[in-house]
Amino acid sequence: MAEKISFEAPRGMRDFYPEDMTWRNKVFDAFRASADAYGFEPYDACVVESYDLLARKAGEEVGEQIYHFYDKSERHIALRAEMTPTLARMVAQRQKELRFPLKWTTIAQCFRYERMTKGRKREHYQWNLDIIGEDSVLAEEEVIGAAVDALKRMGLGSGDFKVHVSSRKFLGELLAKSGIAPDLHAQVFLALDKRGKMPDSEIAAMMKDGGLSDADVSAAFAIMDTKEYAGCAELEELFELARTAGFADSLVFDISVIRGLSYYTGVVFECFDTKGEFRAIFGGGRYDNLLTTIGGEPTSAVGLGFGDVVVTELLKARLGDGAAAEKKGVAVGFMFPEQRDAAVRLAAKLRGEGERVDLALRSQKPKKFFSHADQSGAAKAVFLGPDDIEKGVARIKDMSTREEKEIAL
Questions:
Q1: C-beta of residue 152 within 8 angstroms of C-beta of residue 31
Q2: Of 83, 150, 153, 155, which is the most exposed, with the fewest CB atoms less than 10 Å away?
Q3: Rounded distance, CA 37 to CA 240, Å?
Q4: Pick from 263, 297, 322: which residue ends a domain?
């Protein structure tokens, strides 16, 4: 006897039933609306990438973190774990033809084989915003501003989240002033980025393994108490721009934001809910050297990755499970088969006027029809009976207020 097939999605993956899609659409609609409002152009790419490209960007250990395989022609390929390497490849491919600065956006499905925790799946969608070819801090302001705008479109306020901002360049200057040699800074960044995820004793051991002395380790930890960004020109300018744009209340300086990836070169940022209940909502920063690592020409860039998993959990926690179920459209039903054609004509008429119409597929009693219309989220409903056809007039009901008005058939 054949083994029974499981009806569960593969571990770490997700199915989206209609009730799940209402949340996904709420998030995606905000992503697209904000990207459009801020002048970003949409792009997309294939979901598989060359393994060599991903290894060059993230190192050979990337093989432990991603889904990779050999195709039938023995090419080593992988499911993308993020969009940045693909973006770099696409820009490098047409670097001589493109008009810079680029402002590009996409919502990409990404796959990462790793241990699952709260807010982390093995598959997720990630909204990416990137500005390439612009040295000004205005690029950071636009990317962060668009992400803040998206959160507000979803129904969150600045009291629900804060964008924690720092600068790798500024941190490097502080390390240098403390006597830590520049060639050791990458090791310090990598270790300190683990703070909060492992004990300080293990982080200290990581730094010592990387060549830091006891004095260096103590100095590095002391720098983590820095509360002011005075003297860092790029952060001073960014916060001033945020005040001008009207979202400074959503930003806080946080020297502990480092971002573990080695390609970040300047301003870095991560957004967290103010109650500290979830993982980072989004993160990003300036990465001025990435294109050169894959063979492209040197180009400045700022980017952001904003996943759908954490923000959906946050929205459900703050707004309630029913917040995504917006009533819309018209439900049209009929009592007997004799009214079917009139219902079809009415549905066609309403659709021609731009309405979303859910047409009942069989005759029903009024109570059953209106119950279904209510549960399906229709904003209005029309039910046709023999008298309506005879009069040539029907009543359309507002499902929220229960008010009715007549419409001609």
A1: no
A2: 155
A3: 21
A4: 322
130: nearest Cα among 261, 255, 291: 291
Which amino acid is located at 10 in the chain?
P
Cβ atoms of 159 and 52 closer than 8 Å: no
Task: Please tell me whether residues 40 and 62 are part of one structural domain.
Answer: yes
pLDDT tens readout for residues 297-315: 889 999 999 999 999 999 9
The DSSP letter of residue 54 is H
pTM: 0.91
Task: Identify which of 247, 177, 175, 244 has the alpha carbon closest to the alpha carbon of residue 207.
Answer: 175
- Domain stops at, among 322, 350, 371: 322
pLDDT digit string, tens, across residues 83-98: 999 999 999 999 999 9
Q: Residue 90 and residue 288: Cα distance in Å, rounded?
A: 16
Q: In this structure, which long-range contacts are made by residues 58-67, counting pairs with CB atoms below 8 Å and at least 24 apart in sequence?
A: 58/85, 58/261, 64/113, 65/112, 65/113, 65/114, 66/111, 66/112, 66/113, 67/111, 67/113
- Residue 331's DSSP bridge partners are 358, 381
Cis peptide before 366 (omega within 30 of 0): no
Q: In 3D, which of 404, 402, 403, 384 has the Cα closest to residue 394?
A: 384
Are residues 350 and 283 both part of a single domain? no
